Amino acid sequence: MRKPIRGSCLCGGVRFEVDPPFLQANHCHCDRCRKHSGTAVCTQTRVLKEQFRLVHGEELIKVYGRGEGAVKAFCTNCGSSLFGGDWPDGPQVSIRMGAFDDDPGIRPQFHTFVDSRAPWDTITDDLPQYSERRT
Ligand SMILES: [Zn+2]
Ligand SMILES: [Zn+2]
Questions:
Q1: pTM of the entire predicted model
Q2: Residue 28 lies in a domain
Q3: The CATH number of the domain where 82 resides is what?
Q4: Total domain count for the chain?
Q5: What residues sit around ligand 2, an ion, with C-beta below 5 angstroms?
Q6: Longest CA pairwise span in the chain (Å)
Q7: Does residue 12 form part of some domain?
């Protein structure tokens, strides 16, 4: 079995591990991801819930935006964006790839919500682009 992929927030209060393989990875350019990340995109990947373990810091995680689409789960101490999707519910866990301490192996495969991107956000790769969510 491969070693678990480790991840953490900026302050280290939240730590987690994931068993590969990952299901998918993408750059989301929607206005919510942009505001939450403070930059052009949230780059995120997904695994099945059974492949994810929260090792430390559950009490530090705050969930923003329930009922408004994909949630934004972040560390209340350092502000790191950590999880999205339906956190902490649902069959899959959506993880911000910037939180990984190890190479997760998977690479971003497509762009979503490109019609919502910032005027200064220029896509320079050849990955598939979707105007909103992937269809
Ligand atoms: Zn933190
Ligand atoms: Zn988004």
A1: 0.94
A2: no
A3: 2.170.150.70
A4: 1
A5: 28, 30, 33
A6: 44
A7: yes
